[in-house]
Amino acid sequence: QVQLVESGGGLVQAGGSLRLSCAASGSIFSINAMGWYRQAPGKQRELVAAITSGDYTNYADSVKGRFTISRDNAKNTVYLQMNSLKPEDIAVYYCNANLRERSGSGYRSERDWWGQGTQVTVSS
After folding, report:
1. Backbone region of residue 26 per phi and psi (left: phi > 0; alpha: psi in -120 to 50; beta: other values)
2. Which of 95, 98, 106, 117 is the most buried (most CB within 10 A)?
3. Which is nearest to 20 in space by CA: 44, 49, 59?
4. Taking Cα atoms as reference points, which of 6, 14, 47, 43 lies closest to residue 121?
5. φ and ψ of 33, to 5 deg
6. pLDDT digits (tens, 9 = 90+) for 44-89
7. Which of 85, 111, 86, 89 is nearest to 27 (CA)?
8. Rounded CA separation 103/22 (Å)
9. DSSP 109
10. CA 124 to CA 119: how far, in whole Å?
11. Could you tell me whether strands 118-123 and 10-13 are parallel, antiparallel, or unpaired per DSSP bridges?
């Protein structure tokens, strides 16, 4: 089994910063892309930022220049540094990892795994 454990959410004033972390653990053979999604009340889950195993990054237009995604492959961990936070950033943030799970002497097909979510609240 695989687990993604997130940390770092909370309450911050507009203009402030937060850093989210997500550590993947368990029977992991390899990790491809990792990323962060968010879901605001009444809205669909949307991609915030993603990073491949080769460190190629992709950001939602709404966070470009404010958020930075990074990863530590040795720790199977992805980070999201969020600066200049705005009330419109309020959401539950979910970690995602596309990975291969170990299976015996081999591995299973790639699939997506999700964290439990962490709340980010920005006060105006």
Report:
1. left
2. 95
3. 49
4. 14
5. -85, 150
6. 999 999 999 999 999 999 999 999 999 999 999 999 999 999 999 9
7. 111
8. 23
9. P
10. 16
11. parallel
111 token code pair:
């699939």
DSSP 84: S
Strand partners, 31: 99
Q: Which residue has the tokens 């999201």?
A: 80
Alpha carbon distance 68, 75 (integer Å):
18
Extract the tokens encoding 16: 């402030």
Question: In whole angstroms, what is the distance from residue 12 CA to residue 81 CA?
Answer: 13
Grouping H, G, I as helix, E, B as strand and the rest as coil, residue 88 is: helix
Strand (E) positions, the chain? 2-7, 10-13, 18-26, 28-39, 46-51, 57-59, 67-72, 77-82, 91-103, 106-107, 111-114, 118-123
Question: Cα 121 to chain center, whole Å?
Answer: 16
| Rounded-to-integer distance, Cα 46 and Cα 94, Å | 10
